Amino acid sequence: MQWNSVGEFFAMGGYALYVWGSFGACALLMIAEPFLARRRLSDVRKSLARERLADELELQQKNS
Amino acid sequence: MNAFLATVRRDLLLALRRKSEVLTAVFFFVIVTSLFPLGIGPEPVLLKKIAPGILWVAALLATLLGLPRLFSADHVDGTLEQMALSPSPLGLLVAGKILAHWLLCGLPLVLLAPVLGLQFDLDASTLGILTLALLLGTPLLSLIGAIGAALTLGVRGGGVLLALLVLPLYIPALIFGAGAVEAHSAGLGAGGHLSLLAAMLALAGFFAPWATTAALRVALE
Amino acid sequence: MNAFLATVRRDLLLALRRKSEVLTAVFFFVIVTSLFPLGIGPEPVLLKKIAPGILWVAALLATLLGLPRLFSADHVDGTLEQMALSPSPLGLLVAGKILAHWLLCGLPLVLLAPVLGLQFDLDASTLGILTLALLLGTPLLSLIGAIGAALTLGVRGGGVLLALLVLPLYIPALIFGAGAVEAHSAGLGAGGHLSLLAAMLALAGFFAPWATTAALRVALE
Amino acid sequence: MRQSIIQWFRFASPQSFYPLAGRMIPWFWAAAIIFGIGGLWISFFVAPTDAQQGEGYRIIFVHVPASWMSMFIYLVMAFWAGLGLALNTRVSGMMAQALAPTGALMAALSLWTGALWGKPMWGAWWVWDARLTSELILFFLYLGFMALQAAIDDPRRADKAGAILALVGVVNIPIIYFSVKWWNTLHQGSTINLNKAPSMAQTMLWGMLLMALAFWMYSIAVALMRVRAIILERERHTEWVKHAVE
Amino acid sequence: MTARKLLRAGFGHNWTMLNVSGLACSRGERRLFTDVGFSLDPGEWLHVQGENGAGKTSLMRLLVGLSPADAGEIRWRDEPTPSAEFRRDLIYLGHHAAVKEDLTPLENLLLAAALDGVGLDEGTALAALVRLGLRGREDLPVRVLSAGQKRRVLLARLLTRPALIWVLDEAFNALDVAAVRQLGDLIAEHLAAGGMAVLTSHQPLPVPGGKTLVL
Amino acid sequence: MTARKLLRAGFGHNWTMLNVSGLACSRGERRLFTDVGFSLDPGEWLHVQGENGAGKTSLMRLLVGLSPADAGEIRWRDEPTPSAEFRRDLIYLGHHAAVKEDLTPLENLLLAAALDGVGLDEGTALAALVRLGLRGREDLPVRVLSAGQKRRVLLARLLTRPALIWVLDEAFNALDVAAVRQLGDLIAEHLAAGGMAVLTSHQPLPVPGGKTLVL
Ligand code: HEM
Ligand SMILES: Nc1ncnc2c1ncn2[C@@H]1O[C@H](COP(=O)(O)OP(=O)(O)OP(=O)(O)O)[C@@H](O)[C@H]1O
Ligand SMILES: Nc1ncnc2c1ncn2[C@@H]1O[C@H](COP(=O)(O)OP(=O)(O)OP(=O)(O)O)[C@@H](O)[C@H]1O
Ligand SMILES: [Mg+2]
Ligand SMILES: [Mg+2]
Q1: Rounded to two decimals, what is the model's pTM?
Q2: Cβ–Cβ of D152/C168 closer than 8 Å?
Q3: I want to staple F42 with a disulfide (CB 3.0 to 4.6 A). Which of A29, C116, D117, F194 is the partner?
Q4: Nearest to B84 among E66, E88, E107 (CB)
Q5: In what order do the strands lie in the sheet with E90-93?
Q6: Is A13 close to D112, i.e. CB distance below 8 A?
Q7: Domain ranges in chain B?
Q8: pLDDT digits over E122-149, tens only?
Q9: CATH classification of F3-214 is 3.40.50.300, yes or no?
Q10: Which domain holds residue D152?
Q11: pLDDT of E11
């Protein structure tokens, strides 16, 4: 373990901007991407559910 | 004024509908600037020297590439006829189309130029001047280009003829635009170049829509 | 084979009918090369150094500019459908169109390059290499470009999208083409570069018409 | 033989693939997280400070996996695309479409982390080095693929056109790679040479390996998530989708 | 949306609304027609007839002011055209589709209205599309519509913008039997409300009455 | 130029020349038609009917092989299409003009024939144009022709290339009365010589007999 303090860890020996810039960008994008993918999935699901509901309503109308 | 805004909105909507279109003008700019180092070789000193020229030529070509579409789609499908017959003055609609063209093809280049400048290792103050020059220059390119687009409308061989007509007219913008950066690098100050660009922009903003409208009426005859 | 020649003849005839078209690709090439001295400044040593790169990038852009028209006119007016249904194999007709495109947009550049090279003060043997490299490279550009033109056919945002697809694929041609001249100037001999260009040309000549035909069939669906 | 292969791909219909993907995703996420934590631990707490580059070299632990993945994903994408074109299976086209954004993301990360590494090491954000340049071109190829697919709204056509482009690109990638390499090395050595990181310590190798595995698992997980969405979008009017989504 | 309110002043004068006299047109070395004249008052319509190439389209383009005549005069409300007033009173639908293939029918209508500077709410636009049988196609890009459906999108403009004079060049092309009848009804309604129309068609027109001009 | 000599073998077999069965086509989410089938033998023709957007054009494109069917089979001379033989026997004229606006009618005909790999001398081409009423327009660029004249240039291909089966999508559009009659005669001649035809039109067709398919 080469870090003596938390501050030293974050300073990264003077390369903080570059190291945290790299790791930060990776973390940010790699967290964002699955959320975007999931939202896409849930959007489709929602619209499918809406369609189902509309179908059912139409059916009810026909029956009554 | 309403019709003006409606035209801008319409053209933006059409462009967004072709999602890729907005981004691809930008990517063309990026790719063309990247082509030059590949053709010329990777020496940093040399590249730094020719960077402003390359960025300006690339911006000019990227604007040029979007020009044929400015009126041609509306011409082919008859919308332009409808515009000429519309109760709103044609000049207003044309001005709207030009503004939309700049928002789609010009503004993104201005925003992107600093990033590309970094690739050529330009420093911060040079990047500032470059961006400012492009901010003044790209609307000028759109305005002048619109005249050319209208003149070559429906003419056989349009796209290339357009380039031929418009590029010579772009030369002053290129000289003062790229010159501003070089003057700055040489420690001469870019003020003179920039104010000339601004003056040309004012002039073109006044006359170009008018000339474009006249050219369109001829094309419709 | 007859249908192949007929296609070439037809495309040449169509281009000649739009008289301006043949000349304007050439003028675009001339104007773009002339823009650089304006954007970069008139230092002869610098210009001489970047000349091959600039000529190659200009040739590449001039070819690119003619690409959207390669199939789109035939697509819009339904001729392409007729070609796909014609008893002659579509691949043959496509090869004919590519050859015609090269004759119209590539060959003139090759012929003109030495003249433009003189502007940049290149010596005779360098000019020879430049011309030879372009002679091998421009058909390659037409072949690769045809694939892109077919893929973007009838697609929203065509022209600019085409540039985005095709320019990255052009890079090897650019590097070896401009590299040949530089290697020659550096006394290293251009043989290696030129034979690589020739190899790529052979590869593309074999695969590109095939890929283009496949893409056209997709576009017609 | 050929018949049985075709049979197999018929079996891999969207209908059977959708729940299968759903069951696999958590496992890949788990693997990605475990490998990721291990990799990060090594990269920050086990790997020693580099003698020449100080702490700056730690960027390697994201840079190299991202670069590798960006290249590898293109191959996989082209594989699926070619399969779709040859056998006309529906899932293949969807897989190719699902992989492209992740590949582009990896290429972008490689460029970004590389630029952030270059500034302290070479004093420039960007130099026209062979490897950098070919990565940039790879990024453009991804964007071209995505732009082409976005521009065509009939999914069947989009798949086929995208497949042709991906295959053309895959032929070109080696050509591009070598041309850029030679372009650079044939030149007088005015560019700064990209020094290989000095004799990598065993621990660094392990760190990179773990991170690469994490990136790999991550890519598979995200691509599967996206492909599920794409399956539903494209098959929304089939009976099974109506039943699958309660 | 009727023509009535656009009529305003115009009655009680001794001039006709549209008065065309002495028109001549040549294309290349060919004289298409000379000395063509006619006049229209509210409620009247003109059927321009003639074989292929007789000059019907050319006449229409002169009439609306898209190309200049070799000779002759066109007066609208007793003023020479093209006047701003004429353009406000006019709808011209030509051979071209004049719809954006990338937009949906609804967007096409709304944007066309915005460009003309007339207000149009979505409800009215939708009603026009439904009336023209495009129910269920409001949200598809026009590109995928059938030939007849594209024409219908164009024709919907007749319902969304009030105009006094309709100039329709082969508007019945590509329409099916039901749509032809419907367009006929539309024109008849327009005439009854005091509108005017100039039509060409090679088929018999389902509109009663009307003057005839044979080129 | 007649279909007779193209017939060759084909009689005395127990299959029909064109046999279509179980065709299905969907566009977007819409099922346009399912299980469409018909067959044609020499001298027979089919009238495809249906309102705007019913799927007539889509059916024609499946038939000639421009887009793939969702299901079903098309057999020509007892072989599945698209075969090289089918393409040799086929002429398809669609909604599009498919003529080059920059070329003259004569050049258009000659080049179209050359692309198809069939010989065509200038005399025959000229005769076809004259027969279709384009006398005096042979040397004008197609661009300046009227809408109907453009269609006639396209139709002239029917006279300059022998083919067994004509697939004509709304070929009667934009034609004047005389031209409609003439095209009807042309088709009748073609059928009498053993040809086949698939036609769509919203107007009544001036060709006697014929099967009907309503979509
Ligand atoms: C934008 C800039 C950069 C880009 C696009 C980039 C791209 C790449 C690529 C594509 C690879 C994988 C190559 C392979 O495995 O053969 C790679 C690996 C690597 N890069 Fe970078 N790089 C960049 C900047 C840098 C910088 C500045 C350094 C260090 C000073 C660096 C050090 C490395 C190392 C050590 C490897 C692993 C070497 C190996 O596995 O052979 N890179 N980079
Ligand atoms: N440059 C020219 N030289 C000679 N004739 C020309 C020229 N340009 C156009 N024409 C002729 O002028 C006429 C234009 O006709 P127009 O388009 O007005 O016909 P139309 O009555 O609308 O016919 P259609 O019923 O086919 O639509 C055509 O006969 C065309 O051949
Ligand atoms: N993506 C899509 N989603 C839904 N419907 C679609 C889509 N693409 C096409 N359609 C519909 O498919 C039909 C295509 O019809 P087609 O062009 O074959 O009609 P047609 O019978 O030739 O009509 P017309 O008489 O107008 O020429 C149209 O009704 C159109 O609205
Ligand atoms: Mg007409
Ligand atoms: Mg149709």
Answers
A1: 0.85
A2: no
A3: F194
A4: E66
A5: E90-93, E165-168, E196-200, E45-49, E211-214
A6: no
A7: 2-220
A8: 888 888 998 888 888 888 888 889 999 9
A9: yes
A10: 18-245
A11: 56
